[in-house]
Amino acid sequence: MKKITIAIDGFSSCGKSTMAKMLAKEVGYIYVDTGAMYRAVTLFAMRNGMIAPNGEVNRDELKQKMQTLRVEFKLNEQTGRAETYLNGENVENEIRGMEVSSHVSAIAAIDFVRTALVEQQQRMGRDKGIVMDGRDIGTVVFPDAELKVFVTASAEIRAQRRFDELKGKGVEANFDEILNNVQQRDYIDSHREVSPLRKADDAIELDNGELTIAQQLQWLVERFEERVAQ
Ligand SMILES: Nc1ncnc2c1ncn2[C@@H]1O[C@H](COP(=O)(O)OP(=O)(O)OP(=O)(O)O)[C@@H](O)[C@H]1O
Ligand SMILES: Nc1ccn([C@@H]2O[C@H](COP(=O)(O)O)[C@@H](O)[C@H]2O)c(=O)n1
């Protein structure tokens, strides 16, 4: 069967990675979570004092240090899931916290950060057979992807899902803080100058606000089967 490239973009916490991961597993493709890469760069900047208390980023210092920064994914044999490594250290849990979430969109708006990560993402997808999720996959990273999906749901539904997820993990969570973060990231991601979040003209839009996880997977598998048959 021919291998294709699948780009899944959309707003924060709408279920992109859930869909992408499940499809990749179902069809035996590689899955790449590009948000994790921007989060790892953000953690690096935070740890190295490059983000001031007012949120301002020391771009010159980050630019200088970008070459020393290595973001990789490694399979956790126990969970069967890929985890994010920053310069050899497993940072999978740390990059998901609210502190990284509150700075990541500012870091992701920086041109040289995007150039470096997009190059790496394009290398990962060179041989196709990949499902990649993010904000600019269908527009910038793989504009020729055979299947592009743009996922939406209301900010309240998305925040509620994230809130439920954190509660389920026993993590202290505040709904209003999560909603505020989701809305803020959507705004910055959609309004930045470089590669703003937008639906590619040839992407299929999916509002999954009323869908279950099983229903959205079924929808995606059907779209995949249509594309590989073409
Ligand atoms: N259709 C759905 N119904 C209910 N919950 C869902 C659905 N799809 C995903 N979820 C849940 O919503 C939460 C966010 O999903 P996920 O992490 O896949 O979103 P995302 O778009 O990749 O987020 P981010 O942009 O922050 O990386 C998770 O807890 C996931 O299990
Ligand atoms: N292709 C991408 C992916 C992500 N971003 C930025 O990273 C943030 C975190 O992404 P999550 O998918 O983990 O929520 C996101 O809010 C964007 O600012 C990006 O710019 N491009």
Automatic annotation (TrEMBL):
Pfam families: Cytidylate_kin
Catalytic activity annotation: dCMP + ATP = dCDP + ADP; CMP + ATP = CDP + ADP
Top enzyme class: transferase
Entry keyword Nucleotide-binding: yes
The organism's place on the tree of life at top rank: Bacteria
Record: residues binding ATP: G10, F11, S12, S13, C14, G15, K16, S17, T18
UniProt xrefs under InterPro entries: Cytidylate_kin (IPR003136), Cytidylate_kinase_dom (IPR011994), P-loop_NTPase (IPR027417)
Family: Belongs to the cytidylate kinase family. Type 1 subfamily.
Protein name: Cytidylate kinase
Organism of provenance: Hoylesella shahii DSM 15611 = JCM 12083
Gene this protein is translated from: cmk
